Structures are given as structure tokens and as C-alpha cells.
Amino acid sequence: MPPTITPAAALAAAAAPAPAAAAPAPAAAPAAPPAAAPPAAPPAAAPPDAAPPAPPAAPPPAPPEAPAVCADSPVALNATIDNAMSIFFIFTTFAISQLNK
Predict the structure, then answer these.
(1) pLDDT at position 87, please?
(2) Widest pairwise Cα distance in the chain
(3) Mutual angle of helices 74-99 and 7-15, in 10-degree steps
(4) Phi/psi of residue 93, each to 5°?
(5) What are phi and psi of 9, to 5 degrees?
(6) Taking Cα atoms as reference points, which of 78, 76, 70, 72 lies closest to residue 13?
(7) CA distances (Å), origin 55, targets 6, 51, 62, 68
(8) Which long-range contacts (CB under 8 A, 24 or more apart) does 12-21 make?
(9) Which is nearest to 14 in space by CA: 98, 72, 86?
(10) Does the pTM of the predicted model rise above 0.70?
């Protein structure tokens, strides 16, 4: 007989962080080496009195993320339980109505 899982244990397991995935296998080496590129021109020398280049602009801040509702979340679990209870209630109501005829 399989072990009984309590609702509290199921919620605790859903809230626990998932274990880290295994590192992906390294990509296969290319069969042929890429064609040799022509030699690049030497960089132009900057005049000694030139100002240093400006630092790159910082990227705009990322928008705040909405809370995710995925299959492992307690919200999705509650919705699943609510749907199952509704179907069960409809089925049992129909079955009882058939017995009372």
C-alpha cells in the first residue's frame, strides 16, 4: 500500500525549491574548422589628446514580474481540488436523484 500524503505535506513539497537540473552536455565539436578570416586591419592609433571613450549606457531596469501560477503552485492545486469537488458534487447529486426515483 503506498504511503498516505497529507495535504500539509503536499503543500510543503510544492513550496520546496526544485533540485538543480544536471548540467547540460557540452556541444559537439564542429566537423570542419571554420574558414580562416582575412587578417584584420591594425586599429588606428588614437591621438594622445583624445578623450577616453564613454562607458556603455546601462540597460533599462527590467519590469517587475507578475507572480507565476504554474502546475506546482498551491494556487493551481487549490483550483484543481475545487474543480474535482465540483465534478464530484454534480455526479453524486445526479446519482442520488436516480436512486430516489
Answers:
(1) 96
(2) 102
(3) 150
(4) -60, -45
(5) -70, -35
(6) 72
(7) 57, 12, 20, 36
(8) 14/72, 14/73, 14/74, 14/77, 15/74, 18/72
(9) 72
(10) no
Residues 18-53: tens digit of each pLDDT: 555 444 555 555 555 556 655 666 566 656 676 777
DSSP count for the chain of H helices, then E strands: 2, 0
Joined grid coordinates for residue 90? 454534480
Which amino acid appears at position 36 of this protein? Answer: A
CA–CA distance, 42 with 47 (Å, rounded to integer): 15
C-alpha cell at 74: 498551491
Cβ proximity of 72 and 14 under 8 Å: yes
The percentage of residues in the chain with a pLDDT greater than 90, rounded to a whole number, is 18
